[in-house]
Amino acid sequence: MNLPPLIKRKRRLLDLRADIPPALYAGAGAAFIAVFFLAWWLVTSLGWVQPIFLPPPSAVVQEVVSQFQAGTLWVDVRASVYRISVGWILSTLFALPIGILMGNFRFFEGLFEPFIDFVRYMPAVAFVPLTILWAGVGDSQKFIILFIGTFFQQVLMVMDNVKTVPYEMIQVSYTFGLSKWEILRKVILPAALPGIWDTLRITLGWAWTYLVVAELVAANVGLGYRIMRAQRFLQTDTIILGILVIGILGLITDYVFKFAYRALFRWAERRM
Fold this sequence. Notes:
mainly alpha; 76% helix; 12 helices; flat; MetI-like fold
């Protein structure tokens, strides 16, 4: 059967998966953010929304200066980054080996997946009273909340990353006389690592979303605590500042993972 020759065509800007110049890629994102903040300034400056519901950008900037001068902002950021880091690292240390076992051995998938599927639908905020009873009101309780909010999704994603490695690669590896553990170490894990790296990046973002839940009760410092405290006094400028800082920190960590991905897995990018 003769297949028709491929028709070469010039790729346009909005073609499927077409590459665009890096400057255009970065500029589009920057322009969208600029439009968002311009709309925010316009809505508040024209008085369409009362400041108690949405303060103007200038009020948030003043709050940044005030908290920076008082040292509050740095203390909150440092506490929240510490809690996020420990909670996410603990989740990753458990999710990686369990997810790899589940992705390679049906026995471990059958052993763990029903329980993981059962727990992952439970809202992390519902565990706050129990974690206070179990671990008190210190940072350990916050680590547990972040762990609960991250681990059960993360382990299933790692399992799926491992399963994307074609079974034909495993069969070919057996023909070269490799043992199953050698195949796992030399074939499966290297092939699955780019996907696992992306999973780590995504789940770190999830950990940031659970920060307010983790700092909901019995905290006296942290970005989530500052947001919840400002809610009681209707300090919407402080609330928006906390949300923006969490977003900026999350964006920074996301781009760190993306740049590391390009440095570590150039072969995977060329294959796409």
